[in-house]
Amino acid sequence: MQLTNRWVLITGASSGFGAAAAEAFARAGCRLALGARRLDRLAQVTEICRKTGASAEFHELDVSSTASVSAFCQWLQTLTPRVDVLINNAGGAHGLDTVAAGKDEDWEAMVQSNFLGLARVTRAVLPLIPHHQGASILNIGSIAAHQAYEGGSIYCGVKAAERSITQALRLELNGTGIRVGSLDPGMALTEFSDVRFRGDAARAAQVYRGVEPLVAQDIAETLVWMASRPPHVNIDEIIIKPTDQAAIHKVHRRATV
Ligand code: NDP
Ligand code: 8X3
User: Fold this and answer.
1) 71 lies in which domain range?
2) What are the tens digits of pLDDT across the range 180-212?
């Protein structure tokens, strides 16, 4: 399916998967509406997209706030009456504490962004998504939705919730022609671990020690592929992991000096 001139909305477009997806959809000839909280970073991503010749605009968006989502959608409707591809990507992990040591602020941040944020944005944008024209809602899940791990309880829980919302939406939208899919990555080198470990770069680097992780472009290319299938094809769910990661607990690490 041709993506040229389609409107693509990406949440969490200021870094990592969201930023790479913005560039990939720009290269595919799409028009972009980008949201996140860090406006300086969004401006940089927008500039990169425009250099491909694409039309790209950005606006502040905090998916954990219904007021912010409403303001974003009002702005969005000054750009376009339709959204062809909605990418719910905003989110991340906060901390790696056991349940016994967990902190309310971390739990609330994860629930608000990964889980309720996805639902809020989808609710607000759905009226703009055309029926029977090959539109897609693509949600970023995680292998954490498929396998829990120590210290990941709440993050695994919210990503499992993302999977359930995706499945429920597909049922609710059956007959509208709107496709709904989940892309569930494993270990990928983005700012994810910097955020999880609150800027502790040494601890974040340990996550990827001796491993060749996924990079953001791997996810971006897969999102473009999902959105560009023919309109009668719905990619329900893709799990994508580095070759070095056979499972959450089974990671091949090369010796490092
Ligand atoms: P990054 O930290 O690089 O990107 C996260 C993005 O989410 C940023 O653009 C950030 O923007 C945005 N974001 C976070 N909270 C909010 C919020 N409340 N409102 C709006 N935007 C928000 O990490 P990734 O690119 O890796 O993460 C993207 C998604 O991929 C997340 O959902 C993450 O859980 C998931 N994921 C990541 C994996 C990995 O190993 N990297 C593997 C599997 C899934 P800003 O701070 O400017 O608001
Ligand atoms: C990110 C992958 O394994 O750190 O969603 O939870 S993991």
Assistant:
1) 7-251
2) 999 999 999 999 999 999 999 999 999 999 999
Please state whether the predicted TM-score (pTM) of the whole model is above 0.90. Answer: yes
Q: Does the residue 2 lie in any domain?
A: no
Q: What is the CATH number of the domain that holds 219?
A: 3.40.50.720
> How far is C-alpha 161 from the geometric centre of its chain's CA atoms?
14
User: 60 - beta bridge partners?
Assistant: 36
213 CA distance to ligand 2 middle (Å): 12
In a domain, 256, yes or no: no
Half-sphere exposure of 112 (CA within 13 A, CB side): 14
In a domain, 139, yes or no: yes
Taking CB atoms and a 6 Å cutoff, what residues make up the pocket around ligand 2?
142-144, 152, 155, 186-187, 248
Distant-in-sequence, close-in-space partners of 206: CB < 8 Å, separation ≥ 6: none
CA–centroid distance, 92 to ligand 1, in Å, is 5
Q: Which of 72, 155, 192, 197 is catalytic?
A: 155
Please report where in the chains the tokens 């000054």 appear, as a residue: 78
